[in-house]
Amino acid sequence: MITAAALAALATACAVGSWRFTTARWTSRAPRLAIIVWQSLGVAWGLATTGAMLAYAVQPYGTGVLPGLIAFAHGEPPLHAWDALHVLALIAGLTSLAVLVVVLLAAGVQALRARRRHRMLLALISHDDPGVPGVRVLAHPSAAAYCVPGLRSQVVVSEGALKLLSEDELAAVLAHEAAHVRERHDLVLLPFAALRRALPWSKVVSDAQGQVELLIEMAADDRARRYCSPRRLATALLRFGTAGAMPTPHGMLGLHAHNVMARVDRLIKPAPELAVSVRYGYIALSVILLTTAPYLWVIQL
Question: pTM score, two decimals?
Fold first, then answer.
């Protein structure tokens, strides 16, 4: 019973923490750290929520969640008789866990299919250009720049973007897209997209997904400005924002007009970095979240 209560308390703390974190003001100063915190909150909440129900369900076995589930799967009799509440908790816990796993797998499969179809389409409507080696050029008059993530990743720009951007601005945009590819931001977004599917009514989940989408753009901006002028990237963002850029295809990661001014401001007038003590504090919090929930799945308090 203590284990179930501890997991329920952890789930509540993660939910409240996520709600408060949606309004945090420091995240734009350290987007990669903020992404780690969001991932930690999401993983811990999922494990704690399902674990609280399952911990109560396997209480008749007198073991932790994982040993109790293994005993149940092997058909071992419990130390105490089952009652309706324990059976209901078992059904609810297993169903919730299955839903989270299924929506994650479904989101991954859908993304893979969308990228495979898009690669086939690109083979028909895009071409190589010696002026931008290693990049596929899309035959479209609107401005577009995006990447197709995966093992065979591709960076794509449109003919409209080539006409719109100067040489330096184009280099900045390509560095931004290359950052998405290198840091596998598609995998960062996948769990949040899956959670949004599982809980479409939750404003906190919706806000969290929006926050992470913006944070990965900021993280890609930070990586890109190592190789190009931040002002050139900022002017490229403004050009895309005012030119009516083409929407990024589903399942891809692209340079779009979402929250342009917030990104431009931090590129032109970067805020001071977070204090080292604050960074280590959030790293410690993330480690605690990622270890506490699995630990409570194994032990019996």
Answer: 0.89
